[in-house]
Design brief:
Elements lengths: L7 H10 L11 H13 L29 E5 L6 H16 L2 E5 L6 H13 L5 E3 L4 H12 L4 E4 L10 E4 L2 H15 L4 E7 L5 H15 L15 E2 L2 E8 L4 H14 L6 E5 L4 H11 L7 E5 L3 H9 L4 E4 L2 H16 L13 E3 L3 E3 L4 H11 L3
Parallel strand pairs: 1-2, 1-3, 3-4, 4-5, 5-12, 6-8, 6-9, 9-10, 10-11
Antiparallel strand pairs: 7-8, 11-13
Helix pairs in contact: 3-11, 6-7, 8-9
Amino acid sequence: MPSLVAGKEYKNFLLGTFAMNIKAVSLNNVVFSTLLVAIFCAGCGGGSSNIPASNNEKKEKSKPVNNSGVKVAFVSNNAAEFWTTAEAGARKAEEETGAQVIFKRPQDATAATQKQIIEDLMTQKVQAVSISVISPDNQTAFLDEIAQRIPVLCVDNDAVNSKRKCYLGTANLQAGRSVGELVKEAMPQGGKIAIFVGQLDPINARERRQGVLDVLEGKADSKSLRESPDGQKYGNYELIGTYTDGADQAKAKDNAADVLAKFQNEENLCMIGLWAYNPPAILAAVKDSKRAGKVKIVGFDENDITLDGIKSGEIYGTVVQQPYEFGYQSVKLMVQLVLNTEKTIVIPANGLIDIPHKVIKKNNVEEFHSFLKKLTNK
């Protein structure tokens, strides 16, 4: 699946190294292709075409247009560094469209704070909002109220039963399966596993966890959530626990340290971090316990510490999303919706726009990290 981000280097990277990781699980390819063409043929913000050009075709740089009267917003689910990359994508789209983008991060990662931020944005007369929903079950009614007034997109974490226009992000069951495959590679003989994540209310956390366990149990595919309790064996792997930290990075490290202390004599132990800050927290605890290189670590997302850990061999691998795309594509789509050109946008019938994930290991981490630094101007 091609990227919507303008720029030859970015498109070539995605079309090349991401190609092997595309999971056609939630979108009809024809419908999504129509979406891509529709968005850009409609000229949303002056971005260049996403369709790969021939070697001889020259691309013009995207030129900002005057949509200064358009105001849209993006609200993350926490303040993690992950969202810095998403904001970079949103700012690129802001530059290309000429619209005003307000980017907000709930510092305490609570649904109450997220609700207050959205209410404040409504008083600022934003015309569309993208949200990584913290607690879908508890926020659906509120999201429906907002959706009656302005277009609402769910990004990264969905509220499936809400009246949002669409979900734009990772197919988390499939991404979780990729994590499970990394666990099997890192510890093929089986053993004990521990899963670490910020919260289990968000559906992305539950789906990633489910995908991991489905693979370890030997299930051929993952279609939905099911009962998968802690304390049971999944194939040759015993899940000793799923540890939440409320998006508190100090608590995340404490959780990892507690597991290491409890299982200090366990030779076959793999610790799995499902949110961006979890793998660095796990690694810090493992280093403190003098067990780096002995305890297996598998991660999620592209924190710099995680990528450096893969380079050093202290982390086996990670599954990365495309947060830059989350920000970029959502802003582009919101501007389109605000400009009353919705009739030119074909949103898939299932309401899902899948942005593919990628598996990062020692053999490709240098290339990916260099690419990421260029993307975020680090």
